Amino acid sequence: MKKSNATGTINAKIQENDGAEISLDFTTLYLDFSTGTLSVAGFVPGSTQPEQGLQCDLSGAINPGVFPIGGGASAFYNTGKPGDSSWNAVSGEITVIAVDINKSASGKIEFIARDAANPTKHAIVSAKFDLTNI
């Protein structure tokens, strides 16, 4: 995994498989404005591979608004547990509150992710982000 390219915060509340909700503050942060795409990601450094964390991607016009998963928006969650792959979002939304293209973005991400190999494994993810490129 590459080094952080952003400063700021991603604070998440995650509930795996109907268990207790946990709070995570990610310290390895990414903000990327590729051609027509906004990517926001946060991971816990030093956790197992794949590192525990989340990523969301939004394609198309990058403006403030609410974007449903599947409608140009996607997301995944990594549990950080050995043997688990990324769990893809099956429903939810990405809300962009503010964006300054190539500089910063803030908003929230809410989704339900499922393990494709074992759909009974799932996570409810709710996160707020406020990131600036460095």
Quick summary of this structure?
The chain has 134 residues and is mostly beta strands. Helices cover 0% and strands 66% of the residues.
Q: Helicity, in percent?
A: under 10%
- CA-based gyration radius: 14 Å
The proportion of strand residues reads over 45%
End-to-end C-alpha gap: 17 Å
The run of helices and strands is EEEEEEEEEE
Question: Could you characterize the architecture of this molecule?
Answer:
This protein has 134 residues and is mainly β. It has no helices and ten strands. It has strands spanning 6-16, 21-25, 28-34, 37-43, 53-59, 65-68, 73-78, 87-100, 104-115, 118-133. Strands 1, 2, 3, 4, 5, 6, 7, 8, 9 and 10 form a ten-stranded antiparallel beta sheet that branches. It starts with 5 loop residues before the first strand and ends with a strand.
